[in-house]
Specification:
This protein is an alpha/beta fold. Helix content is 38%, strand content 9%. It contains 19 helices and ten strands. The chain has a four-stranded mixed beta sheet, with helices on one face. A two-stranded parallel sheet has the order 1-2. It has a two-stranded antiparallel ribbon with strand order 3-4. Helix 2 runs antiparallel to helix 3.
Length: 495
């Protein structure tokens, strides 16, 4: 890792030098271009069209070897649309923002969003093929390896699972599913009679699938027994069966077509691996061979959104309802419901994601972090965005300085912004509205004078974290133009 970054430092300096048209001329430019082409081989370069960000990303990540991903990342994006994107960090950030936003959209079919907490989770019985979840895991791995934050919002249960820990009780899902967690906890705490008479809950698990409601008798479908709605997605079935025996460690260059039959481990308990294999999958959060696991299971349908009964998957809804939850089985019911929510109902999707999440980072690295620090490492922080902190790290160029009248007006306007507007300004300049785990010291934010006149809008060079701010006639004009710019911006160096 360190050799790759050290070997590319010269290329980085050349990129900085060649970002300005007057930096090199004549034969010097020709020599620099030739040397730059050679040095760029030490980077993993992605060519992305803005009109097909996710598709281009998948095509360029597929069938690549792990050693390619271990090079520093450079992204060329929007060049066909006339954008001037020289990647010094901002283009990468913009690429991940767009790609992750597309895949996390509930309409895409891979993830859901809790209406109350706003947090994302894997969609049970997703119709999307498993290789897409593998590619999302690889995108996460690339971002973390290159020191970038991602515009995602996952509950702590997600990071506990990646660390290899079990999610076992309502307190561990409270941030992601607050209403459900309160309902399950109230079931445990109830002391005025039998809960079966008051709550009238059956031992079922319910969730929203892609266009239908999933209802499963958890007592009938135990923790270990395979639950495979194969009518929906044969790929889902194959991946589920493989995880029930021993998780198959996929490689980034595997073919995205599941085998006709899920093959188990050989007589030594191992699978065949090729050269350039990626890092091993993380430790699993459940010992499936543990005979002490109770075979009963549970449900809290009242806390989940209602939906139509499935008509094409009778296996998921046929037969009588589960047994009634009583004081005698309520603890096991709550434990089983949390298990189905965070494990069994989404096991193939999570396993596919986790297989590639550890492509660029060691499986041991997250284990040394507190789960909240792990979340902060991946997602950054939106709670620490403050005007005073932003002003303290700001730099100025082109004739501006901290005491310039336009700069004073600028910060006066920013102080009047709502928190969401401050994050939008940060994203407008740096391509991210998040503060990385390393703090403000890692944020590049500079303000450069860009001519005079009230007709011009501020623009930005997210490649460099640079705001190009014209000198306006007054504060009111600056406030209006800045607001218009951050609300309607898109691209690199494009007004």
């Amino acid at each position: 890792m360190f050799e790759a970054y050290g070997g590319s430092s010269v290329a980085t300096r050349l990129l900085n030098q060649m970002s300005f048209p007057d930096a090199l001329t004549g034969r010097g430019e020709v020599r620099a271009q030739k040397k730059l082409a050679d040095l760029l081989k030490s980077y993993f370069v992605m060519e992305i069209r803005r009109e097909s960000v996710l598709l281009d990303a998948i095509e360029q990540l597929w069938r690549r070897e792990q050693r390619d991903f271990m090079k520093p990342l450079k992204v060329r994006m929007g060049m066909d649309e006339g954008e001037e994107g020289v990647d010094h960090g901002g283009v990468q950030q913009e690429f991940f923002r767009l790609a992750i936003a597309e895949v996390m959209n509930p309409d895409y079919g891979m993830f859901t969003v809790d209406e109350q907490s706003g947090m994302s989770w894997f969609r049970p019985c997703s119709l999307e093929p498993m290789y897409k979840f593998e590619m999302v895991g690889l995108l996460f791995s690339l971002a973390i390896y290159n020191g970038l934050t991602l515009p995602v919002n996952f509950p702590l249960a997600f990071y506990r699972k990646l660390q290899g820990y079990e999610v076992t009780n309502p307190s561990q899902i409270r941030d992601g599913w607050p209403t459900l967690a309160r309902g399950l906890q109230s079931l445990l705490d109830w002391s005025d009679g039998d809960v079966g008479d008051v709550f009238a809950r059956t031992y079922d698990f319910t969730a929203e699938g892609p266009g239908f409601k999933i209802t499963v008798d958890m007592e009938k479908n135990g923790r270990i027994k395979a639950w495979v709605p194969a009518e929906l997605n044969p790929d889902w079935c194959c991946r589920y069966c493989s995880t029930m025996a021993r998780p198959h460690v996929y490689k980034a260059h595997d073919t995205p077509v599941p085998p006709p039959e899920a093959e188990g481990p050989d007589e030594n308990g191992d699978h065949d691996d090729e050269d350039n294999a990626k890092a091993p999958a993380p430790p699993k959060d459940l010992d499936l061979d543990d005979e002490s696991v109770n075979e009963q299971e549970s449900e809290t349908a009242a806390e989940l959104p209602s939906g139509p009964k499935p008509s094409t998957i009778p296996e998921l809804s046929e037969g009588p309802e589960g047994v009634l939850v009583t004081n005698a089985n309520r603890e096991q019911y709550v434990s089983d419901y949390v298990f189905w929510l965070t494990n069994k109902s989404i096991r193939p999707q999570f396993q596919a994601f986790a297989d590639n999440f550890y492509t660029c980072i060691s499986t041991r690295a997250p284990s040394i972090l507190d789960v909240r620090d792990f979340k902060r490492l991946v997602e950054g922080s939106t709670h620490d965005v403050s005007v005073s902190a932003l002003e303290s790290i700001a730099q100025y160029d082109g004739g501006y300085h901290p005491d310039h009248p336009t700069i004073k007006d600028f910060w006066d306007c920013v102080r009047d912004f709502a928190p969401g507007q401050i994050r939008s300004l940060l994203e407008f300049v740096t391509a991210s509205d998040r503060i990385p785990a390393t703090g403000w010291a890692s944020v590049q934010f500079s303000v450069q004078k860009n001519g005079e006149g009230d007709e011009r809008l501020p623009t930005s060079l997210t490649c460099y974290g640079r705001l190009l701010l014209p000198m306006y006639s007054g504060k009111s004009v600056l406030r209006e133009k800045l607001g218009l710019a951050i609300e309607n911006s898109k691209g690199f160096g494009v007004p």
